[in-house]
Amino acid sequence: MSRLLVLIFLISISCSSSNDPLESDRWVLDSTYSYMTQTEQQASEMDYTEKLEFVSNGLFLKSLTRDGDTTVVEGRWVISEEGGRSGYLVTYSEDHDFVRNCFAEPQEFFFEADGMLIQSDFTPCDGPEFRYVRSSD
């Protein structure tokens, strides 16, 4: 019986060390980084806040709040690989101003690096990289 408890404990530890965004499913914008000017802007310096939420059934919510008004766009996420990086491809049901990429498709790719969730689809057209941190909300 004690071996069974040890086995259950070990399985629970190994499952909790996943890189799955659902380990902590909410993220908040921390900063942006412009490679062109090599400058970083903290979220606290911006006139808006931005949050991401991965939902277990593949639903993805991205919200932007500015001047007390919140806009939410909905998409679907799948595990994907892009540019040699594993991450999460989000396809939105419609295009919005804050769906950021250099192409005409309402998609974004997110990957984890250095404890952050990075969205850099805007950098090929000289836009900034968006960096998110896990949220406790």
How are the SSEs placed, and which strands pair?
Layout lengths: L1 H15 L9 E9 L4 E4 L6 E6 L4 E8 L2 E14 L2 E8 L14 E7 L2 E4 L9 E6 L3
Antiparallel strand pairs: 1-2, 1-3, 1-9, 3-4, 4-5, 5-6, 6-7, 7-8, 8-9
Would you give an account of this structure?
The protein has one helix at residues 2-16; strands at 26-34, 39-42, 49-54, 59-66, 69-82, 85-92, 107-113, 116-119, 129-134. It is mainly β and 137 residues long. Strands 1-3-4-5-6-7-8-9 form an 8-stranded antiparallel barrel. Strand 7 (107-113) and strand 8 form a beta hairpin. The protein is globular, with a radius of gyration of 17 Å.
Sheet with the most strands: spatial strand order: 1-3-4-5-6-7-8-9
The end-to-end distance, rounded to whole angstroms, is 38 Å
Largest sheet: 8 strands, antiparallel, barrel
- Helix-strand makeup class: mainly beta
Unreliable stretches (pLDDT < 50, length at least 5) are 1-19
Order of helical and strand elements: HEEEEEEEEE
Shape: globular
Mean pLDDT: 81
Beta fraction of the residues? over 45%
Beta-strand segment tally = 9
Number of helices: 1
Nearest-angstrom radius of gyration? 17 Å
**What percent of the residues sit in helical stretches (DSSP H or I)?**
10-25%
